[in-house]
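Batch job 17 of 40 flagged for manual review because the log was empty.
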Amino acid sequence: VNKTVFEDLGLIQKRDKGTGYFDRFRDRIIFPFYNVSGRIIGFGGRRLNENDNPKYLNSPESKVYKKGELLYGLYQAIPSIREKRAVILVEGYFDLLRLVDSDIHNVIASSGTALTEAQGRLIKRYTNTVIIAYDSDKAGLQAAIRNSQILETVDLSVSMVLIPPPHDPDTIILEEGKAAFVELLKNRVSPIDYRLKILQQESKEMPLEAKNELIDNLLEEYAQIPNEVKIGLYIHKIAERMEVAESFLIDRFNKIKKRDSYRISRTDDEKQDAIPTVKKGQWRAEEDLIAILLLDQNEVSKYIFDHISTADFTNDNLRGIFEVLAHQWEEQGHLELKEIERSLPNPEDMELITKLSLQTLNKPLKYAAGCIYKMRKWYFDSRYNEILRLMREEDASTTSKMHYTKELTEIRKRLSEIEKEQIKFYKADL
């Protein structure tokens, strides 16, 4: 048996001292992670002993397993999500299994981790409506609020289920039946109602300065939402619930937006924000990969499909095109423009396909390797910065911070590996 495969998947790990390996998922229930094509690419483990930490353990980051771009159960849920035009987001594996066992199939799990924008964009490929049903404990409430903000940033329509303490979706169905959970789904609320319901109790005994800071924090967060109508409704509700003049909040919100716009304009020679610049670079790499695939060179196409998946694309249009190409390659083993045109999700994308198909590239395999390197590096750099942000926000004593530290180490390792891969690749005569 080739132990390297099991090590790469994170099922086993070399001992620090001595020889041999140990089982990383010992005393845990193992759950396989599928990509959207239905292939197993990693594993998650949920503790059996409630005293063991962390609660959830995942395979290490790899070429195909990128935790910040996957959602547990998505592959199996896609048909139901499309049918219901909504997805239920739960926290844990058991919650998901309980819902599926109760014939509720449009459900995915975040597996106890903070969501990323990439995961939000992945959801958006199948629906615009997300229903968050997290645990009723303090950690569950905080995670629900944080993840609703991420999902709204990518302009998804989000609502929250108020699970009565001390329940979670699993126990509410187990003890009170499916009908009780369905009733909670019917009575779900908007993220602002969910949050204000929690904050109202706290704000009653707050000093004025603390209350002012709390409102400022809310406005700061909602300034990131691209939907202006939604922002207007949220400001109205904050004013009503927190007993503050709406005109004051609008004025304050506009100052925050103006300040943020000023910060953006100051970067990149006071003309362009650094983040859009990076995205443009990444999108160029994604576009070039599509162009290389359209050359229909068997060896090059196989290399690309072996090293990149749909989830690696950050541009929605290019992701949709890549998905069509990947499906045709898997079905036919080659690519045809006429077949691609019939399968494109957006007919207007054919203009881009035609333009890209006319490009000529020297050494396409080496060029493709360079594009893949850029995409992977940008992903890991982005995830690294996201973890640092989360660590600053969370209590230093929490188990999650220990988990984040471990993930940072893994990311540094992966960045070093892809750097070495790229150097080795470019030394080769391709």
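Reviewer: the log was empty due to a logging misconfiguration, but the result itself is present. The chain has a mean pLDDT of 81. Unflagging and moving on to job 18.
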